[in-house]
Amino acid sequence: MTHGLPMLPEMAPVLVETVGESMIGWTQRQHPMPKVVKVNRIFGAVEQMVDPWTGHFEDHLETTKIKLVSTLLVTLREESKCGNYFENFLTKCKNKLALNCLYLYHNIEKFLQIFYTQPINMFRICRYAKFIYSKFIATGSPFSVRAGPKVMLFIWQNLDDPVGDMFDEVVEHILTVLAKFWHRLLLEESWIYRKVCL
């Protein structure tokens, strides 16, 4: 499903500092990201986390969380160029929800590419938005990502007149699901690396 998707232009994450909450913003809108990602929402109220780069428990989580989310975003953007490594890891984990979230992320990426293509083809944009809704978001959809009822209602209300940020909340939900698996993958790789170095 992720194979053969055209790649989006390069973009760099921009760190946005706010009082009490770290966020990551993006310089271009053609990426399936909310304009600002609330890092604390993605990882929840975790008090300690193993830093996959050092292998130590971290009490000051802000930098570790920001690093994890920004590397996850880069991985999602570049995944098809690196042999779908993250997709293969999720397949080995046998977690259908995580795989569905990954596939939805790539479909939203394609939707935004269509949305920002000139000249605008509203029929094609509406059709693709409805395809995403029916495949991944609607109740009983075959590749459900278990988005909440508020998210489903908001997207459903915008299906006939789609906007570029209509999938922002579902992308935040996707990142919440995928961040746990990304952290796990990094921990496993760093453990294997340390084992090899010994």
Characterize this entry briefly:
The chain is mainly α and 198 residues long. The chain contains 7 helices and 5 strands, in the order βββαββαααααα.
Structural features, described:
This protein is mainly α and 198 residues long. The protein has a domain at 60-197: Regulator of G-protein Signalling 4, domain 2, CATH 1.10.167. It has seven helices and five strands. A three-stranded antiparallel beta sheet has the order 1-2-3. Strands 4-5 form a two-stranded antiparallel sheet. A hairpin with a 6-residue loop joins strand 4 (49-50) and strand 5.
Task: List the topology elements.
Layout: E1 13-18, E2 21-26, E3 36-38, H1 39-43, E4 49-50, E5 57-58, H2 62-78, H3 85-93, H4 96-115, H5 122-137, H6 149-157, H7 168-197
Antiparallel strand pairs: 1-2, 2-3, 4-5
GO cellular component, one term: nucleus
Pfam families: RGS (PF00615)
InterPro entries: RGS, Rgs22, RGS_sf, RGS_subdomain_2
Global morphology: elongated
* Named CATH topology of the domain at 60-197: Regulator of G-protein Signalling 4, domain 2
Unreliable stretches covering 5 or more consecutive residues? 1-30
Query: How many beta strands in the DSSP annotation?
Result: 5
Q: Give the oligomeric state of the chains in this entry, treating copies of one chain as homo and distinct chains as hetero.
A: single chain
Q: What is the N-to-C order of secondary-structure elements (H for helix, E for strand)?
A: EEEHEEHHHHHH
Mean pLDDT, to the nearest integer, reads: 75
CATH-level-2 architecture of the domain at 60-197? Orthogonal Bundle
The CATH class of the domain at 60-197 is Mainly Alpha
End-to-end Cα distance, whole Å, is 39 Å
Biggest sheet architecture: 3 strands, antiparallel
Helical fraction: 40-55%
**Strands side by side in the biggest sheet:** 1-2-3
In what range is the share of β-strand residues? 5-15%
Category by helix and strand content: mainly alpha
Q: Going by CATH, what is the homologous superfamily of the domain at 60-197?
A: Regulator of G-protein Signalling 4, domain 2
